[in-house]
Amino acid sequence: MEAIILQVLNGLDKGSAYALIALGLTLIFGTLGVVNFAHGALFMLGAFIAVTLRRVFNLSFQTIDETRTDFLGNAMTVNTPYVEHWFGPEVGSTIIDWSVPLAVLVAIPIMGLVGVIMERGLIKHFYKRPHADQILVTFGLAIVLQEIIKAFYGANPIPTPAPEAFIGSFDFGVLLGFDPFSIMYPYWRLVYFGFSAVIIGAVFAFLRYTTFGMVVRAGMADRETVGLLGIDIDRRFVIMFAIAAIVAGLAGVMYTPILSPNYHIGMDFLVLSFVVVVVGGMGSLPGAVAAGFLLGILQSFASMSQIIEIVPGINQVIIYLVAVVVLLTRPRGLMGRKGVMEE
């Protein structure tokens, strides 16, 4: 039972990332009708915003500390971060420690701007083009972005730790009535799950309970009719593209302490997340979220050593096997709408 609960928690952790990326993919496809293979690159850019902000906070200058000496008795040269110099040692060290959560605030305007530039500069020219053209051009854009990141940051993963307050593990065993230390789970993974739930809930609430969201949903169903009512639906769709970019970027920012960012992290998540979108149903927001968590949990269970001993390599292909089974039995996916990508 302890192993089962632990794998469910691991699945929710993975599923959170899949669901957030798939949610952004579905927002773009549902509103603009564009299959955006550059969406994983937006996840990667978010992760490197966190990396960059931590590097900025760690910028330092050298000073002579007369109170410390080396083995020859000479005063030692120490590096003092500018934030500690400006705000004091305690506040400065706290800012550095909390660089990942602070990166969320920085990522929101940056990713929104990136989304607008991407949509206005490239995507809008492919609205009426075949989906194959959209896939090729956005996939090419993703490769360009990841090569730019590789040129500036190198090919190796860059560790970006969580705040010290969230380092360690929570004892789920005691909470659920099991023996102490029987189910230990990292605090930051729980934070990521909670953060994902808040973002997903906020997006659904925005679309359902605001006038802007209602117009967007109407435009998703019948863009031409909404336009005939005198509503500038194109401007609203640009904003939705920016929102989708922000969701992907925030998912990347908060995932950095879980998996050290590298230049191909976006492509790794994109392929799996696109499978999630297909399984959930193209254009279905609830389907994307539900499939994300479902496939995350299944992948987690398939990674158990007991399962791998019986079926070697099953953890590498389980998501694709599930996709095959779902599409054979439900060609539109779990919650897909009639007519989406069926022309």
From TrEMBL:
Task: Indicate the transmembrane segments per the record.
Answer: 16-35, 42-61, 102-123, 190-210, 237-258, 270-298, 310-328
- Localization of this protein: Cell membrane
The organism's superkingdom is given as Bacteria
Main localisation: membrane
What is one GO cellular-component annotation here?
A: plasma membrane
Molecular function GO labels: transmembrane transporter activity
The record's listing under Pfam families reads: BPD_transp_2 (PF02653)
Membrane topology qualifier: Multi-pass membrane protein
> What's a single GO BP term from this record?
amino acid transport
Q: Which UniProt keywords apply?
A: Amino-acid transport, Cell membrane, Membrane, Transmembrane, Transmembrane helix, Transport
Q: Which InterPro entries match?
A: ABC_transp_permease, BCAA_transport_permease
Family label: Belongs to the binding-protein-dependent transport system permease family. LivHM subfamily.
Q: Which PANTHER family match?
A: ABC TRANSPORTER ATP-BINDING PROTEIN, BRANCHED-CHAIN AMINO ACID TRANSPORT SYSTEM PERMEASE PROTEIN LIVH
Name of the featured protein: Branched-chain amino acid ABC transporter permease
Organism of this sequence:
Gymnodinialimonas phycosphaerae
The organism's taxonomic lineage, starting at the top: Bacteria, Pseudomonadati, Pseudomonadota, Alphaproteobacteria, Rhodobacterales
